[in-house]
Design goal:
Blueprint: E1 5-7, E2 27-37, H1 43-54, H2 57-60, E3 64-71, E4 83-89, H3 92-100, H4 102-112, E5 116-129
Parallel strand pairs: 1-3
Antiparallel strand pairs: 2-4, 2-5, 3-4
């Protein structure tokens, strides 16, 4: 079976920009989360533990259509967050199922929340054409 999980490389990725009014009705939802770890934690070990937990989710949550995650490349550690998660969903309903799914919530509560600094989570959800 082909895995839907890919660990993000140290290179940046980008997507086609379109004005929201030009996006077709066939669009997907992308959920992007950036995490800043507590200063007392080892970033390599924390990233490895987080990756181990996250890589299990696509097999347990069928709403996930694409899943990328990985540690920051370290180019500007004073300003950048330490870890990124990018998840793609067919639509808003699929994202909502994922966001409240027990397996996802277990990772959030047991793995993510204990390692993030105060104010160390930023997230955005955006639509993009499903043909990308």
């Amino acid at each position: 079976a082909v895995s839907r999980v890919r660990v993000a490389s140290s290179r940046c990725f980008c997507s086609l920009w379109q004005h929201p009014s030009r996006i077709s009705s066939r669009r997907m939802l992308r959920h992007i989360v950036c995490l800043k770890f507590k200063a007392s934690l080892d970033k390599v070990q924390t990233s490895a533990a987080l990756s181990a937990a996250l890589k299990t989710l696509p097999a347990k949550i069928p709403e996930i259509k694409g899943y990328l995650f990985g540690a920051d490349a370290g180019l500007d550690p004073e300003k950048n967050h330490d870890f990124v998660i990018v998840a793609d969903f067919a639509d808003l309903a699929a994202y909502k199922k994922y966001s409240t799914h027990p397996e996802h919530m277990e990772v959030v509560v047991q793995v993510i929340k204990p390692v993030i600094a105060d104010g160390g989570r930023v997230a955005v959800q955006c639509y993009f054409p499903s043909s990308l």
